[in-house]
Amino acid sequence: MYKKKNFKFFLICTFSILAAFIIFSCKTVPETTVSYTEELYKLLVENKFDEAITYYESMPESLRNEYEMQKLKVSIYISAGRLDEAFNLCTELLEENSKDPDLLYIEANIYNARGDEETYITKLQNIIKLHPKHEEALGDLGDVYLGKKNYKQAEIYFTKALSINSRNANALTGLGRVKYKSSNFEEALKLLDSALAIDETQYIAWADRGKVNYEMGRYKDAIEDVKKSLSYYPDDYFNWFDLATYYLKLNKKDEALSALDKAIEINPDYYLPYIYRAGLNDQSGNYEVAKADYNKIIELFPDYYYANECLGILQWHEGLWSEAYKNFYAAYQHNPNQPSYAFMCAACMYKAGTSSARIKKFLDPVFKNIERDSLNYYIGRLLYDMTGESDVIFRIQKENGKSQKSRALFYLGLYYELKDRKDLALKYYQEAKDVVIVPSYFEYRFVDWALKEAVN
User: Mind telling me which Pfam families this protein's record contains (predicted)?
Assistant: First the structure.
């Protein structure tokens, strides 16, 4: 949270310094100077930071050399991401103004923007030693500890900031998030509402309000809150992702997909929206789009082997045996305690016309991870020997777990499918379907597809 808030704060800080300078200018300098600062203000409002710096350099030297204006320039550099230039100018200004709290705060935030959290914390603590009532530094330390999930320490700093200024909207937002993280939702709402009453442009407060309402089951309110947040800061991909999850609670899948598309557009390197978008398109039968997203998930987050599982399922459905094998095998490598992945690999090999000798060689090490007398062991032996169905049927009859029984019936049906006994395959697929009301294993999709294809 604190990195996003500091960026926003720097815009506010920049505007505040400039506004103060404009007021001062109106009383002491010609009207032309006021026009310079007003034009600079317009560029900052539009987030045109590089243009603002170029315009700054075109202003009269006497105006550029004003100390407050030079502090403003440092802030613009930070907002523009030109951190080396910001640091150099800030260091130069500190040589003669080593105790200026605003400049010290700007220096601290340069380290924050660089990702140097340790130095950032140290600089904030040093500011508080020199200026114990520096509410922004206190609030930022609250944000730091909030990010570290040290909610007790975060609350201390936010409370200190509010004791100095009860209308500190950033601190109220931070304390509201502490209450939200502690599941004190009613108190969180009060604090967030107080922050928004002071500054309705607090996009983080709107986003957090949405989270609180979501947790309280107020999904429509949550949607309106996060939309309000996005109206002030439309480039926050986390908020677009949250919006998608809120829409899904109301079963508004098209709206959720649009929100996910936007999240991915803003940050194409974050895997989580792809997971949700792939799932939605998969459920809707948009398999090619889903497959593209599953491949992207594998690229961005290789350890998320469920993407391999889902991709393997769709490739099996399309008869892409070699591709399905690769993905089921990748899933098995990540989770060797799930023998179903290995069983599906073997099935893909049979479908692709692989020799029984090679299939047996593949399955040999698989049995090391399966309990000798378990139902899974006998399923594995069924696919290994391509005989022994009576043993499996006997153990299925003794199985009490509905999900495991249904899964075993699927493999019995698959066994008969591999032996070109479609009648028996469909018989056991139907039994697999009849056993469970809500299936919880991935192979059930094959059951569903097989039975639907038989009807058609």
Answer: TPR_16, TPR_19, TPR_6
